[in-house]
Every structure is written in structure tokens, then in C-alpha cells.
Design a protein that fits this description.
Blueprint: E1 8-12, H1 17-28, E2 32-37, H2 40-50, E3 57-61, H3 67-81, E4 86-89, H4 104-132, E5 135-140, H5 144-147, H6 154-174, E6 179-186, H7 197-204, H8 215-226, E7 237-240
Parallel strand pairs: 1-2, 1-4, 2-3, 4-5, 5-6, 6-7
The chain binds nicotinamide-adenine-dinucleotide (NAD).
Length: 247
């Protein structure tokens, strides 16, 4: 596909983990991808791997907990490719902490990183999408936001529950403008933090599907939600959890 015909996507927290898998998948699907992350070095390495010319993949160093940094990041992508057609809010901070031990500063930082950043970027991207008459926003939530979480702290779970509500609010605001807003709620996805094969297998035995999920499976859910066949799906939460939580 010629570069000028490619839609553009902005993916936060895209230097590793689920965000990286999303960035790789969307790039493979023909999007120009802005790889936004606080780890600028890793973001640059991924962008260079995807497209050394920078025409279809660009790194953006950003601290999503810092509103000025977020606005700079958005403006940077806008200057290069125009406002994004697709926004994937994914950057997040997971903190394991007993609810009795959460300090207010840590609460504020987790909420700023995981939720306020979704608000600010959705405001910026959503306005441009509305004007353009097409857009896709996907918010990475979590099983923790639905059920309170097993290991992650209350601040993390609250931020992920907030992301689900924010999804519905923006979905309603933008529904008549060709813009869909959806959430993905993963659980039990294989990550480096999960340990080796044996640990993953042990976790897998506790899951109805009998195994842990992969970041590529989460990326495939995002690819569907930003793709051509999902225009009638908005305000929804797509659970990618191996059946751990059914509703
Ligand atoms: N992995 C799972 O099993 C799982 C399950 C449910 C939800 N999630 C959600 O998926 C998203 C990604 O999770 P992951 O497991 O890939 O995490 P991860 O820690 O592997 O990756 C997170 C990425 O976000 C970046 N990041 C962190 N703070 C940032 C900040 N302030 N500014 C910019 N970038 C920042 C990190 O540098 C990293 O590249 C998160 O929102 C997480 O809550 C993950």
C-alpha cells in the first residue's frame, strides 16, 4: 500500500509487551504506526526494525503520566502524519499492593498513568476523528477492572474500571461521527513477569481454556476493533481471557 494511503495509528506503551504486539500487528496490517513509550530507546529500536526509513513507523518518547508530554507526543505525530486515525491507549503501570498500604501519591500516579492519559489522548484524537468522520479508539483495560484483580492493586483495578466507563462515554459522544470506541480486557496473558514455561503452564491449568494467552491474541482483538468490519461495534468490551471471566 502506498504510504499516503495508509491510515495512521498511535499506540502508547508500544515498546514492549501487549503494546509492542499491537504495533507490530497494525504495521503488518498496513497502518503507519507511532510507537509511543517512556522507553525511547526501545521504541526507537522497534520503529527501526519495522521501517528504518521512518515512513511507516516512528518512535515517540512520552511520559503518559505527564499531560504536557502527552500533548507534545500527539503534536509530534500530527506534524508528521496528521492526527491519528487510530488511537490505542495501552501504556499502563501495574503495582501489586495491598489496599491497606496504598499511599495517596502512588494512587495518583497510577491513575494519571493508566486513566488520565486515556482521557487526554481520547480528547485530542477524538476531536480530530470527529472532524474527519472516521476513527477508531481502543482502550486497554483488564480483567482487574471487571473483577477487582487477583494480584494487582486497587489503584490499578480502579484505573482499569475507569477505562471501561470512559470507553462508553467517548463511544456515545462519537457514535454518530463514524468513530468507534471500544475496550479490550485481557487476563492471564503470557508476559516476562509470569516466569518460565512451568510457571505459565501452572497458571494455564487454572484457566478454562487450559493455557495462558499470547500478546498476539490480544493484538488480533485490537486489529479487529480498528479494522473495516467493526463499524457497528462501539462502547463494547472484548474479553480476551481464556474464559476466566464470563458474563
Ligand atoms: N499482560 C497482561 O496479562 C495484561 C492483562 C490485563 C491488562 N493488561 C494491560 O495491557 C497494557 C500493557 O500491559 P503489558 O503487560 O504489555 O505491560 P508491560 O509492562 O510489559 O508494558 C507496558 C509498556 O508501557 C510503557 N509505559 C509504562 N509507563 C509509561 C509511561 N508513564 N509513559 C509511557 N509509557 C509507559 C512501558 O515502558 C512498557 O513499554 C497495560 O495497560 C496493562 O494494564 C495487561
Amino acid at each position: 500500500m502506498a504510504t499516503e494511503q495508509r491510515r495512521s495509528a498511535l499506540v502508547t506503551g508500544a515498546a514492549q509487551g501487549l503494546g509492542e504486539a499491537v504495533a507490530r500487528r497494525l504495521h503488518a496490517d498496513g497502518f503507519r504506526v507511532g510507537i509511543a513509550d517512556i522507553n525511547g530507546e526501545a521504541a526507537s529500536a522497534l520503529a527501526a526494525e519495522l521501517d528504518a526509513t521512518g515512513e511507516t513507523a516512528r518512535a515517540l518518547e512520552v511520559d503518559v503520566a505527564d499531560v504536557r508530554s502527552l500533548r507534545r507526543c500527539f503534536a509530534d505525530q500530527e506534524a508528521a502524519w496528521g492526527a491519528p486515525d487510530v488511537l490505542v491507549n495501552n501504556a499502563g503501570r501495574t503495582v501489586k499492593r495491598s489496599v491497606w498500604e496504598i499511599e495517596p501519591d502512588e494512587w495518583d500516579d497510577v491513575l494519571a498513568t493508566n486513566l488520565r492519559s486515556y482521557l487526554v489522548l481520547s480528547q485530542l484524537a477524538g476531536s480530530a476523528m470527529r472532524e474527519r468522520g472516521w476513527g477508531r479508539i481502543v482502550n486497554m483495560s483488564s480483567f482487574a477492572g471487571q473483577q477487582g484483580g487477583l494480584v494487582a492493586g486497587a489503584h490499578y483495578a480502579a484505573s482499569k474500571a475507569g477505562a471501561l466507563v470512559l470507553t462508553k462515554i467517548f463511544a456515545r459522544e462519537l457514535a454518530d461521527a463514524g468513530v468507534t470506541v471500544n475496550a479490550v480486557a485481557p487476563a492471564a496473558i503470557r508476559t516476562p513477569a509470569m516466569g518460565g514455561e512451568e510457571d505459565a503452564a501452572a497458571v494455564g491449568r487454572t484457566i478454562p481454556v487450559g493455557r495462558v494467552g499470547t500478546s498476539e491474541e490480544v493484538a488480533a482483538a485490537v486489529a479487529y476493533l480498528v479494522g473495516p468490519d467493526s463499524g457497528f461495534v462501539t462502547g463494547a468490551t472484548l474479553d480476551v481471557n481464556g474464559g476466566v471471566f464470563m458474563r
